[in-house]
Amino acid sequence: MASNPTDPAGRGKYADRLDPELWDYIDKVNSWYPPQIVAAPIAEQRAVYDKMCVAFHQGHPEGVTTSDGVVATAAHAIPVRRYRMANGIAAAVVVYCHGGGFVLGDLDSHDDICAEICAGTGFEVVSADYRLAPEHLHPASFDDAFAVFEWVAATCTLPIVLCGESAGGNLAAAVAQGTRHHPRHAIGQVLIYPGLGGDENGRSYVEHAEAPLLTLADIDFYRRVRSAPGQSADDPTFSPLKDRDFSGLPPTIIVTAECDPLSSDGEAYRERIVAAGGQAWWREEKRLVHSFLRARPTVPRAAEAFGRIVADIDALGRGEWPD
Fold first, then answer.
1. From CA 73, how far away is CA 131, in angstroms rounded?
2. Strand, helix or coil for residue 266
3. pLDDT of res. 35
4. Three-class DSSP category at 126
5. Residue 323 and residue 205: Cα distance in Å, rounded?
6. Which pick of 73, 125, 181, 207 has the fewest CB atoms within 10 Å?
7. Which of 98, 138, 185, 290 does the annotation list as catalytic?
8. H/E element holding 51?
9. Which residue in 112, 243, 260, 312 is the catalytic one?
10. pLDDT tens, 105-129?
């Protein structure tokens, strides 16, 4: 994460493009997780990031209950956290993959977001604590997300909605593509500012290469840090936009931030699915930046965007979608 300094004189073209409340959020993130920390050891990056997540945590809405468990695989156990409403019958289950550049994050880092999705939809939510790079290179994170999907499909009869944020959006899309012919394939997916391996000469990559909180250099770092030796850029489990077949995917909603180099990925993914005969919608939230979900308590634009995302998840889980 990280880029522009907090000094207003260094905000460049974004100085007046972003609302004051959003600049307050950006400054707060940079005070916790400063741009230069990307040069620090991974363990230090995680410790600082975890403290930041605690500082931003909003608690759980009333009625949300949680239980932690593991999904056992032949090689290791994958921690998961399940969210349910204490009084209510869920109509669907959301499999959620958190963000963090494949390097940061865990069950706690996006805990309040998952709890609010549960409360806002009434659905169960299963959050996956997939393995992180650089200790575990690709395809470890994908394999774990895939395993959690299969576990949910095998142990729960509810319709499944895939959802992921940033790096988690990449994983959700890859799992959707890998399970499209599964007997219990997802009935929808919602991808939130996902990195899908798009053309870095594309519109947003060029226009927002130095955007607040995520730069083109950051994207390159996160791509390299998760890559095994000889990693193919054309591997669709690594870069879902590199797939050659976009047919058979569930109804898909992609939500991006206007001032984010990754926004073009959402547009391109929508176009590929529609061209293959599927249903997909892309919404670019204006005057917002990468990671805006964490800004929802203090930034009205972010709160409104998150409300629309929760409504999207709710609609897909009920078998509905935009006109």
1. 13
2. helix
3. 85
4. strand
5. 29
6. 181
7. 290
8. helix 42-56
9. 260
10. 999 999 999 999 999 999 999 999 9
